[in-house]
Amino acid sequence: MNQTKKILIIDDEPDILVMLKKMMERAGFDVRLAVNGDEGLLSFYEETPDLVITDIIMPEKEGLEIIREMKKQHPALKIIAISGGGRISAESYLETAGHFGANRIFQKPFTQSEIVSAVKSLLETD
Ligand SMILES: [Mg+2]
Predict the structure, then answer these.
(1) Cβ distance 52 to 10 under 8 Å?
(2) What whole-number distance in Å separates Cα of residue 1 and Cα of residue 9?
(3) Domain-located, residue 111
(4) What's the CATH number where 72 sits?
């Protein structure tokens, strides 16, 4: 059985969503998008994805909260946290994301090959 893996991508920046969607679809994944934390959680509860890529700094609901809630519901879920550079606190947010249960953390900008290979290796360890 080789079912297409589902990836949920949550980011408040449309450009990032579009870019990540293209990258993941090219890599053969089934992609769903959410523009904020609330929408991301709704999507998560509707259908559990195999992996989540979430931004950390978003209005409405922060990425850290989402990571904590998703891991509580589904401890085996793989999560990649991403955050923008340029903000003073981006690095420490990412560090906290790791403590909250994110499996990998990336600071923007990241390359296609690094994020795609992170996704693939996380999904392989199932
Ligand atoms: Mg953001």
Answers:
(1) yes
(2) 24
(3) yes
(4) 3.40.50.2300
pLDDT of residue 85: 57
Q: Is residue 1 part of a domain?
A: no
CA 40–ligand 1 middle distance (angstroms) = 13
pTM of the model: 0.91
Domain of 58? 6-124
54 C-alpha to ligand 1 centroid (Å): 9
DSSP 16-37: HHHHHHHHHHHTT-EEEEESSH
Token pair recorded at residue 101: 């249960």
Provide the number of structural domains found in the chain.
1
Instruction: Tell me the pLDDT band of 108, cut-offs 50, 70 and 90.
Output: confident
Distance from the CA of 35 to the center of ligand 1, in angstroms? 9
For 29-82, the pLDDT digits (tens) are: 999 999 999 999 999 999 999 999 999 888 877 888 999 999 999 999 999 999
| Ligand 1 center to 62 CA (angstroms) | 9
